[in-house]
Amino acid sequence: MFSLKGRVAVVSGASSGLGQQMALAFARQGASLVILARRIERLEEFKPKLIKAGAEKVLALKCDVTSTEDIDAAAEAAEKEFGKVDILLNCAGSSKDKGVVEMTDEEWDFTIATDETSVFKMTRAFAKIMQKNKYGRIINIASMYGLVGNTEIHTVAYHTSKGAVVNFTRAVAAELATDGITCNAICPGYFYTELTTAVLDTDRFQEFAKTMVPMQRYGKPGELDAAVVFLASEEASYVTGVVLPVDGGYTCI
Asked: Which Gene Ontology terms cover its molecular function (predicted)?
């Protein structure tokens, strides 16, 4: 079960962090990959690791997920190279962390464009390709912060954008269900990435996590793999519109 041999997976945000971890998970299952990010040099460095892990073929493309032109060009290049796209993992994101009173228009617009509008643009472009083959698996990386608020970090735009991704997932799942395309979301808890390390390594936040996370720890590398591989698989054909927290229990209390 859960083999991805013969499948083509597109992963945004594949130059670092969770995007790389989940791209490697797809590679280990034998998928071919289209990896997207703004830092093309990081993608080129990453390609050999994917091949070594088991990817059949890897195409690296420079793509700013806030740019409609970049996304449409990437979709065209992926279809030209492979003739199809089976899996789309929307993982790219960034955030300006401020509270509702302090946040500027520019900080709000940046976060919404990067974490919410980009998911719409990516899905629009690649779902069109999936519709041609009546098959697709769309997986959106939201956040447990898309399900709840928090008292430790003021990051209102991030909460808002990830909450929007959660319900965008449900809307797309309903809309594309008869096209053989599923759409699901994963809501990670606290994992180390380039964007989170500085905060997660502070004594104050580690104490906060021990109180708020029932497992009393952050997520480890690889602990998202099972969720993303399952949702990307052919076997998950009757699973759509699901919002799956992988958060050590944060959202259960």
From this structure: 3-oxoacyl-[acyl-carrier-protein] reductase (NADPH) activity
Question: Is residue 250 flagged as an active site residue?
Answer: no
With beta carbons less than 8 A apart as the criterion, state whether 127 and 138 touch: yes
* The predicted structure's pLDDT at residue 193: 87
**b/e sequence 158-187, b meaning 16+ C-beta within 10 Å:** bbbbbbbbbebbbebbeebeeeebbbbbbb
Tell me how many degrees the CA angle 94-137-175 measures, rounded to the nearest 5. 90
CATH number of 8-244: 3.40.50.720
Query: Is residue 4 within 8 Å of 87, Cβ to Cβ?
Result: yes
Read off the pLDDT of each residue in 87-106 and give the average, rounded to a whole number: 96
CA 170/CA 183 separation, integer angstroms:
7
SS3 for 76?
helix
CB 79 within 8 A of CB 131: no
Q: Which of 158, 190, 218, 250 is catalytic?
A: 158
Read off the pLDDT band of 195 (50, 70, 90).
confident
Instruction: Give per-residue pLDDT as tens, 29-38.
Output: 999 999 999 9
Instruction: Please enumerate in sequence order all residues whose Cβ is within 8 A of that of 187, keeping only pairs 6 or more positions apart, or say none.
Output: 142, 143, 144, 146, 147, 162, 166, 243, 244, 245, 246, 247, 251
- Of 76, 95, 92, the residue nearest 84 (C-alpha): 76
Distance of alpha carbon 45 from alpha carbon 51, whole angstroms: 11
Task: Report d(CA 156, CA 206) in Å as an integer.
Answer: 21
Cβ atoms of residues 146 and 187 within 8 Å: yes
